[in-house]
From TrEMBL:
This is tRNA pseudouridine synthase 1. Residues 1-53 are annotated as: Disordered. GO terms for molecular function: pseudouridine synthase activity; RNA binding. GO terms for cellular component: nucleus. It comes from Dissoconium aciculare CBS 342.82. Residues 7-22, 30-46 have a biased composition (Basic and acidic residues). SUPFAM superfamilies: Pseudouridine synthase. It comes from the Eukaryota.
């Protein structure tokens, strides 16, 4: 029996085209012009979709004055909220789609080339996915740039969410994707993410129990010294008064309901993902108390007035208690000693290491798992975001990583690891094992806080640009505008989304109440606590989160 081979399928049948001769095969291919015409007709039937080019009539194209195109680099920034990513699409609204249409309307792309971005040789430096922001990114293409006010004209055609910082002439063969040496990413995270797990949570109880088993209680408490008694203080000053004000007949039901929300959100579904993968997804499997319509049973019409009144009181009291915890965490201000510990954890990433545990579908022996991190730094000055006086604002930390390239989920898992280590009072030496063949389950933090800071083009600047008399490609000259844009269009949007959805709070509730041993390597027992429970080799099935540079 013949298997495989030229022209054969796995079922031992020949491919249809495998029976053709070469001449017959090529004769069967549709005419290229006809194929393009059919594609255009299909787009016209579908209507004008945001993200496509603009079609002009033959008369309009012939009437337009022909002007020279030049190869340029366009330095841009954008908030990804409301967009289906960076890459142009024929069916969705994208950053490139809006940019391309703005180029056309500003006169930077001729009507003859307005239909298809490929005619302008459009290339992106770094792809970002749905909702991901970029303070600095770049596209390279051919534009008409003889108008000295072209940047202002393009920006006038764009929403405030997208800005063109500048346009620079490049050499004719320039590709911003190929010329990029490295990239800076920023991850913005609320400082309360580094609070230890609540004492009543499953993880907190395990950490204490395992510290005793390892005879490490003193060292464990020492690593949490700068945060000791935080939760006790909140319970006494914030939670106890609320509990005392709740009617006695529902008081403990409220407490159990709130604990039930956290436990329910932490249940992992058994599917084809690796253990712990579900924890990175911020959609909460909310319980009845957490759902506006679920407080009322399906047969709520059969409830008496008294029973309905009790259900409503239970719902209101649970919401009040939950909000008290959320507000207390948002008022938290991280001490400098804890920031130093965060930096010590980030320093573990610097250099060339094996990141097979920090992505998906990679093994330790895969050469592409090796990545070089130039720096990973936490800004020691936290950012206060929100309205009103400073004490009512939420505190956030800026983490910036500079690397040559990143794999899928890598940055979010890197942040997930250091956050888990610091908040759990772990011995940071455990991180060293994550770069070895030992398999770890590392949750990825929400994609909400991730943004592309800027790409770097040092090799091009020092060699090609200098040789051919072109301007160096740097974002430094736009620093003031770029920082103002980050504050108004990116930071504020991240903050508002967190205010509305409490993604980070829900994410760490998942972690703290996930009753499996996958993350107990953060305990005083280290990897011994996971013996027999190493990470499953089954790959995660999930989409990209925006920091993947490899295509």
């Amino acid at each position: 029996m013949q298997h495989g081979g030229r022209g054969f399928r796995d079922d031992n049948k020949r491919h249809k085209k495998g029976d053709m001769g070469r001449g017959e095969y090529f004769a069967s291919q549709p005419d290229k012009r006809k194929r393009n015409e059919d594609a255009n007709a299909k787009r016209e039937r579908a209507g004008n979709v945001a993200g496509q080019g603009i079609q002009y009539s033959k008369e309009e194209i012939e009437a337009e004055e022909r002007r020279p195109k030049r190869k340029v680099a366009v330095l841009i920034g954008y908030s990804g909220t409301g967009y289906k990513g960076m890459q142009i699409s024929g069916t969705e609204r994208t950053i490139e789609g809006d940019l391309f249409q703005a180029f056309i309307r500003a006169g930077a792309i001729s009507k003859a080339n307005a239909e298809d971005p490929k005619k302008s040789s459009l290339v992106r430096c770094a792809r970002t996915d749905k909702g991901v922001h970029a303070a600095g990114n770049m596209i390279s293409l051919k534009l008409i740039v003889e108008d000295e006010n072209i940047v202002e004209k393009i920006n006038a055609e764009l929403s405030p969410q997208i800005r063109v910082w500048g346009i620079e002439r490049t050499i004719g063969s320039f590709s911003c994707y190929q010329a990029c040496d490295s990239r800076w990413y920023e991850y913005l995270i609320p400082s309360h993410a580094f609070l230890p797990p609540h004492p009543s949570s499953w993880l907190a109880k395990q950490l204490e129990q395992l510290a005793d088993e390892a005879n490490d209680r003193s060292s464990y408490e020492g690593r949490q010294k700068d945060i000791e008694n935080f939760w006790e203080g909140i319970e006494a000053s914030e939670i106890k008064p609320i509990l005392q004000s709740i009617d006695e007949d529902i008081r403990w039901e409220v407490v159990k309901a709130l604990q039930g929300e956290e436990e329910a959100s932490a249940k992992a579904e058994k599917n084809d993902e690796e253990p712990g993968a579900k924890l990175a997804k911020t959609e909460v499997n909310a319980t009845k108390v957490n759902q506006p319509d679920a407080d009322q049973p399906a047969e709520h019409h059969s409830l008496s007035d008294a029973e309905m009144e009790r259900v409503l009181r239970l719902r209101a009291a649970t919401k009040r208690l939950r909000n008290a915890y959320v507000d207390a965490k948002r008022r938290y201000r991280i001490p400098s000693s804890r920031i130093d510990r965060i930096q010590a954890a980030l320093d573990k990433y610097v250099g060339t290491k094996n990141y097979h545990n920090y992505t998906i579908q990679k093994t330790f022996k895969d050469p592409s798992s090796m990545r070089h991190i130039k720096s990973f730094v936490v800004n020691k000055k936290p950012i206060l975001i929100g309205e009103g006086p400073d004490e009512s604002k939420s505190e956030w930390l800026s983490l910036k990583v500079h690397g040559q390239s990143f794999m899928m989920h890598q940055i979010r898992k890197m942040v997930g690891m250091i956050t888990l280590m610091v908040r759990s009072g772990a011995d940071l030496k455990t991180m060293d094992e994550s770069f070895t063949e030992t398999r770890f389950s590392i949750p990825k933090v929400p994609g909400l806080g991730l943004l592309l800071e800027r790409p770097v083009f040092d090799s091009y600047n020092n060699l090609q640009a200098a040789k051919h008399g072109r301007e160096a490609l740097r974002f430094d000259k736009y620093e003031e505008k770029l920082e103002a844009f980050k504050e108004s269009e990116i930071y504020q949007r991240i903050f508002r989304e967190e205010e509305e959805r409490n993604e980070f709070g829900r994410f760490f509730n998942h972690i703290d109440n996930f009753k499996e041993p996958w993350f107990l390597y953060v305990s005083s027992m280290g990897l011994k606590a996971m013996k027999g429970y190493e990470r499953s080799p089954i790959a995660e099935v999930d989409g990209s989160d925006g920091e993947q540079d490899d295509n």
